[in-house]
Design brief:
single chain, 109 residues, mainly alpha, 434 Repressor (Amino-terminal Domain), 0% strand
Length: 109
């Protein structure tokens, strides 16, 4: 059996292990059901026995509502997550802020 220290997928698996086992933030039974996978499969991912499949990231995030799993991949690439904005007023405000920032950058050039 693999553990936190000898997993070949140490970084992401460590995050899974920490959130599920150490912090006990999530219950494998609940999350596996929400992800529509068998609980033993999720346990194998969490314990590092199997690599977590990249195509299951969206299911994991939707089931846990934990953006840390996406941030794990975005941060090293220099990207930041921004949620979709559904409120039109908020979109207008953010759009205006972006225009102001853009004009400030153009003035400095």
């Amino acid at each position: 059996m693999s553990n936190l220290n000898n997993s070949p997928n140490y970084g992401f698996q460590a995050l899974l292990y920490y959130r599920f086992i150490i912090e006990k933030t999530y219950r494998v039974d609940d999350i596996s059901k929400a992800m529509n996978i068998h609980k033993d499969t999720l346990y194998r991912y969490v314990r590092g026995e199997n690599k977590f499949p990249i195509d299951q990231i969206s299911s994991l995030v939707n089931a846990t509502k934990d953006l840390r799993y996406l941030e794990y991949f975005c941060d090293p690439c220099g990207y930041t997550l921004l949620p979709k904005i559904k409120d039109k007023t908020t979109v207008k405000v953010i759009s205006n802020i972006a225009k102001i920032l853009q004009s400030a950058v153009e003035e400095e050039s």
